[in-house]
Amino acid sequence: MSTIISRAGWNSRGPKSPFSYLNKKRVVGIAIHHSGVKNGPKGVTAVRAFERHHMLANGWNAIAYNWLIDEQGVIYEGRGAGVVSAATRPYNSRTESICYTGDGDKKIPAKTRASLTWLIGDIQKRYNKKLWVKGHRELASTSCPGNVLFDWVKDHRNGITKAQPKSKPATKKSTKTVKQGAKGIVDAFAEIEALVTSRPLKKGSKGAAVKVVQQLLAAKGLYRYKIDSDYGRLTRKAVVEFQKRRLLYVDGIVGPNTWKALLR
Fold first, then answer.
1. Burial of 223 by CB count in 10 Å (0-12 exposed, 13-18 middle, 19+ buried)?
2. Alpha-carbon torsion 249, 250, 255, 260, what sign?
3. 50 beta partners
4. Is-above-0.85 flag for pTM?
5. What pLDDT is attached to residue 33?
6. Domain 182-262, what fold?
7. No. of H helices and E strands in the chain?
8. Would you kindly state where each structural domain of the chain is located, as residue ranges?
């Protein structure tokens, strides 16, 4: 299942100055990028590394991309929907950009392809399905987004989708499954808060909410293990350490107070 993490969820620094917004009538496409980093950081660590580099080294206002997707298919809100990016000159004011945080010259994981397919479709809905989808190399002198990912972009554009899911990655609904969507990022986090209020997450819990907790703990450097959606001994250990550092009641359980603290 795919998860969407908001800027608050991955502890973004936030923009130096208010974002500029796209003129919807001028938007013509979706630009696909990759990290270009061999054996680089993964998951939320990669996203935060992008932000540091873009803001501190490049001097940009914020992380460059509108959206990012990692090797597990997790979608991260960068600048977000309808915001002018800094990733695709001279098309920044006419595109939304998506960056794969892995290496686009290597095989693209199925979960990543699924999230790319869904996210492109969601963006298209906001622009009446009239946008082209191109690799960065079609818009500038660059090898981005890598040969393998660029082949996928061309297949997607040509309607070759037999290896890709046609719907949103999430397919099941239960008390342990969180609804996802670019328009529903806030709703997703509110739903997790409602879940942990009525049924706190603890050792033995499983599902999308646990996965988000593991991602947030990893972003804070407290969880360095596999993101597996399973609240086991190592997840509980990380939660206990987080609670100690935040002077919360220490019980190794993610209830509403611990959840709210994780988002700060």
1. buried
2. positive
3. none
4. no
5. 97
6. Muramoyl-pentapeptide Carboxypeptidase; domain 1 (1.10.101)
7. 7, 6
8. 4-157, 182-262
